Amino acid sequence: MDERLIFNEVADKYEKYRPQYVPALFKTLIEYSNINGKSHALEIGIGTGQATRPILDTGCQITAIELGDKLADYSRNKFSQYANLDIKNIPFEEYEGDQDSFDLIYSATAFHWIPVELGFPKLFNLLKPGGAIALFWNRPFVGKEDDPLHQAIGEIYTALRPDSSRKVLQHETKRYERTISNILNYGFTDLEFRLLHHERQFNAEEYVALLQTYSDHAMLSKDLKGKFEDRIKEVILAHGNELQVYDTIEFYLARKPEFI
């Protein structure tokens, strides 16, 4: 299975357990892009629509791209009352839009699935001169060094998933620098970069359900996945059945130059 389609199989859990983005992000995005009822935006990877409603509420017309058919259907139903949303169930790589046609192109925790050498030139081509791009990712972490529960979870990863890409550090400077460099190297200007923060609480069942919405977890063997989830549940229950998750949102804004 295409790893990107893992999310298609857990649409309900994705909607329930993946975080909504903080209001400050949308306030900044809308002010930076200056979108309104006459604007046209492209959303890459709508998923279950965690980043969609605030943009729809500006009156802006949104064309949304979604690879997963179940996710596309979920969002069509979720936003059925909005006439200004058109969801296309295709990969972004296959989308053929007109050059210079969008005032805003944005993607929430999805753009990393698209090869850099394909994604950024396509963004540049589709965007109107002066139009804005907004790329953002939510990065949850449970890496508080002074928290016994977080330490215990880290030990489970070390024992059962030593090759996991799970990070315990909140700030990953090299990735930020690489993304900024890509944006600038492909011709965008007026770049703004921010880190936003949010906290959530989960019990054992909820946290395991959240894990099941991540592709690296879904790709584990059945035996390892079961053992890993059981250990995670046990340790959260042993610490009062409450886990604090700390979200860091990477947020990048930039423009296509008015004159090229």
Written overview of the protein:
- This protein is an alpha/beta fold.
- The chain contains 10 helices and 7 strands.
- Strands 3-2-1-4-5-7-6 form a 7-stranded mixed beta sheet, sandwiched between helices.
- Strand 2, helix 4 and strand 3 form a beta-alpha-beta unit.
- Helix 6 runs antiparallel to helix 10.
Keywords for this entry:
260 residues, seven-stranded mixed beta sheet, 10 helices, alpha/beta, globular
Short description:
This is SAM-dependent methyltransferase. This protein is an alpha/beta fold.
Task: Give the helices and strands, then pairings.
Elements: H1 11-17, H2 23-33, E1 40-44, H3 53-56, E2 61-65, H4 69-78, E3 85-88, E4 102-108, H5 116-126, E5 127-141, H6 148-160, H7 173-185, E6 189-202, H8 204-211, H9 215-218, H10 222-238, E7 243-255
Parallel strand pairs: 1-2, 1-4, 2-3, 4-5
Antiparallel strand pairs: 5-7, 6-7
Helix pairs in contact: 6-10, 8-10
